[in-house]
Amino acid sequence: MKKSLMILAAMALISSAALAAKANYRFSPINQWDITQTASYWNPIIRYVEERSGIHLELKLGRTLTETIGYVLAGNAEFVFSNHFFAPERDALGWKVFGRRNLPALYGQIAVPEDSSIHKLEELHGKTVLFSGPETFIGYKVTYAELLSRGIRVKTDFSGSQNAAFAQIFSGKADAVGSASLLLENYAKREHRKFRILWTSESYPDLALMASGKVPAEDLRAVALALLGMHQDPTGREILRQASEAAGLNADTHFIPATAADYAPYYRFYQTAPAALR
Q: Which residues are bridge partners to 28 per DSSP?
């Protein structure tokens, strides 16, 4: 009897150790929408990946994009969904691209409400242009770089989220907005609003799924297989459909493999971007 109890105790210790050793990682997607909508999109996806991979993922979101990026730069995330780590000094941190969504290329756009009196980019001189935050690559860095290159001096302001930026230009608190094309399209469709596009950039791939160099290869492989295979599993496909439709994305939106080579336009941008935007 005593021997049996000792065996059971040993098994319990082994089980506890195994649970403690289970991989735990933090996942920080950028704030494409406000924090509530961003969490609503990612939480069901993360739960699915946990169940399929056996790896625990904690959603790590800041209140704003800048705060979320701050978490990552401070070493508080091991997986990200972002396009903010292609600048030379951040590229050196060792983040590895392993996937992206199957969405069309993104474009930086500068827009005004359709009924605005502004019809040309040059007419923004001296006006207020709103951006979601200084860390926004396509919505701020790409669009503001164009204004600087043309010598168009504007008053810049940051709203904290892209949805807030859109709401403010329609309320008259700002004259124009810089944004990624996908977010403009989704907001216009969801809120029944119309924009006038003043300028559109070259194309950029959608945001990248990336893993820190600290993540062991076997754990990265397990997470990647679960994410990239979601659309091939009926349960995963339904989760993606619901999350995508709620976010205003195409119902068939899913994750596909990608590498750093797919993100060449980002690297090109940083080769010529103004120093303040690198």
A: 80
What CA–CA distance (Å, rounded) separates 53 from 247?
A: 25
Q: Domain of residue 57: give its range.
A: 23-104+206-277
Q: DSSP string covering 237-266, please?
A: HHHHHHHHHHTT--TT--EEE--GGGGHHH
Q: Are residues 123 and 200 in the same domain?
A: yes
What are the mean pLDDT values of the chain's consecutive 10-residue runs (278 residues total)?
40 39 87 91 98 97 92 96 92 95 96 98 98 93 97 95 94 97 93 98 96 97 98 98 94 97 95 86
pTM to 2 decimal places: 0.80
Q: Which amino acid is at 76?
A: N
For residue range 77-123, what is the model confidence (pLDDT) as tens digits? 999 999 999 998 898 899 999 999 999 999 999 999 999 999 999 99
Give the Cβ contact number of residue 36 at 10 Å.
9
Half-sphere exposure of 127 (CA within 13 A, CB side): 24
Give helix then strand counts, H and E, for the chain.
10, 11
What CATH number is attached to the domain comprising 142?
3.40.190.10
Residue 3 lies inside a defined structural domain of this protein = no
How many domains are contained in the chain? Answer: 2
